[in-house]
Write a structure and sequence with these properties.
Blueprint lengths: L13 H5 L1 H16 L5 H12 L8 H12 L5 H25 L3 E2 L2 E2 L1 H5 L1 H22 L4 H20 L8 H25 L8 H21 L10 H4 L4 H9 L1 H11 L11 H33 L5 H16 L5 H4 L1
Helix pairs in contact: 2-5, 4-5, 4-9, 5-7, 5-8, 7-8, 8-9, 9-10, 10-14, 10-15, 12-13, 12-14, 14-15
């Protein structure tokens, strides 16, 4: 693959589609720098798979949000460009960690690192990527080190908590979802605050960052159910004992479903067998039927609150970003009136 080839997320339109032509050169320059880094021989084939030959950088929406906010604030400066490889490589380390925790076999139509190289190699690969991120940050701009390492440490801690508290009792679901949204919040803050830093602007407020994390997570979870991603190698939240908004809303609206989920989750490891796949697919449908409308209603309210809590100078930008994410729901067959 050419070292300048970058594939944009085609299922997201709006602000990401409009910016593709202007942002692609920045991503290409960053990719070229990463491709040229010297790796130890045993790591080189992994590096090639994760970075050099990866058509769509992992979690590319966060580097795109970083570039978008920088542009909104007055332009993508040389400092923004220099920091971009650090952000992109950080997200590759995050993807390895995330896919290991989720036991996911596919990401963006490719085998995940744990699936490609084995779970036993996931930890040394993530460690090598993180070490490279730190080394690169020191070389490019030492100010990048603290926010980058803080983000990775906090995310790791939250994912440990998530694994240790899987299959929670329903009385703990609200706390569980707060921890999951917190993961998206610190990722959002990581990207946006670096964009703000190089324009000498104050940090992005925590409240709209948390609201935006809710929007991203809930939309991804709704789309995952509608697209039945579990059939394509992505982890099944019901199977892994993880709470998502449509599930919580469905159980609030249907006590019989809530009781069944509680009984099912008591089986825990038994759920990982293939014999439960039909039951889980049927449950996904029941969750959509009982919880989708409530989740969409709340998403609308969160979107309004997110824009209102965003600093006035950035509200129009935030509205554009929110609309781009909300439009993703229309792309999976939901009527525009349901998404409004």
């Amino acid at each position: 693959m050419s070292d300048t080839t970058i594939r944009f997320p085609q299922k997201f339109q709006g602000i990401f589609q409009r910016s593709q032509a202007s942002f692609a050169p920045h991503l290409q320059v960053a990719r070229r720098l990463l491709n040229q880094l010297n790796m130890p021989a045993p790591l080189q084939h992994v590096w090639d798979y994760v970075v050099v030959d990866n058509p769509q950088p992992s979690f590319i929406l966060l580097p795109l949000l970083y570039l978008s906010l920088a542009e909104q604030l007055g332009g993508i400066t040389p400092a923004h460009q220099r920091a971009l490889p650090v952000i992109m490589l950080t997200m590759e380390a995050v993807a390895v960690m995330d896919d290991t925790v989720d036991i996911a076999s596919r990401r963006s139509e490719r085998a995940t690192v744990p699936a490609r190289f084995g779970v036993t190699q996931a930890t040394p690969i993530a460690t090598s990527l993180t070490a490279t991120v730190a080394e690169l940050a020191v070389q490019i701009d030492p100010r990048l080190v603290q926010p980058t390492m803080h983000f990775l440490r906090e995310l790791g801690a939250l994912q440990i908590w998530e694994v240790e508290h899987s299959y929670p009792e329903q009385t703990d679901w609200e706390e569980w979802m707060q921890h999951r949204y917190r993961q998206g919040q610190i990722a959002t803050e990581f990207a946006l605050n670096l964009a703000l830093m190089y324009h000498r602007q104050p940090l992005f407020p925590a409240t709209p960052a948390y609201f935006f994390a809710q929007i991203m997570q809930d939309i991804d979870d709704v789309v995952g159910l509608l697209e039945q991603r579990v059939q394509f190698g992505e982890g099944c939240d019901l199977q892994r004992g993880r709470v998502i908004a449509p599930l919580a809303d469905a159980c609030d609206n249907n006590l019989q479903l809530a009781s069944f989920i509680n009984q099912l989750w008591r089986k825990k490891q038994a759920l990982l067998s293939d014999s439960h796949q039909t039951t889980l697919q049927q449950l996904n449908q029941h969750v959509l039927e009982a919880g989708l409308a409530t989740t969409l209603d709340r998403l609308t309210q969160i979107a309004i609150a997110c824009e209102e809590q965003t600093p006035p100078a950035l509200q129009s930008w935030m509205r554009d970003v929110i609309c781009t994410f909300m439009a993703r729901l229309s792309g999976v067959g939901l009527a525009q009136t349901q998404v409004a």
